[in-house]
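task queued by scheduler; priority normal; single chain, no ligands, no partner chains; default sampling; output format set to structure tokens
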Amino acid sequence: MELGLEERPDAIPQPFSEITEIGDNSHQPIPKDDKVIDIFDKIGTGATLLILGEPGSGKTTTLLEFARDLIARAEQDTNQLIPVVFNLSSWAKERQTIADWLVEELGNKYDVPKEIRETLVKKQRLLPLLDGLDEVKANYRNDCILALNQFKKDYGAELVVCSRIKDYQALSNRLNFQSSVCIRLLTLEQVCYYLDSVGTELTGLRTLLSEDTVLQELAQSPLMLNIMTLAYQGVAVEDLPKTDVVEERRRQLFDAYIEKMFKRRKTNQRYNKGQVKHWLIWMAQRMVKESQTVFLIEKMQPSWLINGKQKRIYRLMVGLMEGLMFGLMEGLMVGLMGGLMGGLMVWLMVWLMVWLMVWLMVWLMVWLDKELTEEIKTVEILDINWKKILINRVKGGLMVGLMVGLMFGLMVGLMEGLMEGLMVGLKGMLMGGLMGFQGYVFKISAFA
């Protein structure tokens, strides 16, 4: 089903807007055979295009079809820019320049080596296709538009951005782009033609749609129409739920869709429906909070843990694992030293002291370097920052050394004090005894 497009010149700043007549900003339909790539080509070198649409109207699908056409062209001509699809939702996390963000996203999403991705951005070899301006957190969207405008100004780059129309219209800033189009909603004629072409499985839906205006309104969205065809496939018209409230109809539709998805899976379910719904809702909420649109297990972070107890357990496990690794290395060293030095008491004292130092060091390192537990990062190549590790370990080592030094000092001081006290006492007792004995002998000899 071909989606219709219309011009939206009012969505972007117009040159000489003070003298432009109102009629010039009317929403003119674009010829049916014109695709997005045709509209983009007409703009010329340095083209920038804004694609608007209602929720579920097919913005992402249109962008991906555009990317497919550009890729086909680039495969025939290596001088063409490389089209790459990104989602702007992740920009809000650090709010860096668009150039820096593109470099980072090329690594995160496409595993492009750092040197190559920096060159691609710096030498303007990319054609960024940016989806989801409306998925940027609301309080950062105006800043995102400013960042996009600055990127366009600095690099003169070709650029395409997609957004929900109402979210874009609510912003105070506008993209300084050359052209803007909006995806038109489906007409009732298009919807009916599509349902008739599918087959008899959707006869019930087709019949209800002809008389239900609420259902007709929802069916204007390609996404909702697709959900309808899955949820109501093979359902008789008398079994379909009815309501005059749009939100209630939408809820009924989603409930039917979810139920159909459960029935499609023939394998034994490890979790019941309630658990699956609960954790899917939880995951969706976390993804929205973390500005993520695609779930990747490697993107799960310790911050996703629900309560303080879970976070403490996580940190404890990290500390235990580090302790085991350090302990194994230290144990081998102590065993070797103890064997060479000999003596059971010496070996035990050294072993106990080293283990005490290891555990103090582990807990202090975890406390000082919270990046070990607060964020999990994926890497393409094992890249060890020895400078950072050295600084953190030196800080930790100084504190551990101070603590252990004080403990050793106290223990050694007490032991040496006791030993010296005993030695002095014994020495004094012997000297006193000898002197006393000599005095006694002297007296006896004098009286004799």
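post-processing summary
- The chain is about 60% helix and 5% strand.
- The first strand starts at residue 5 and ends at 7.
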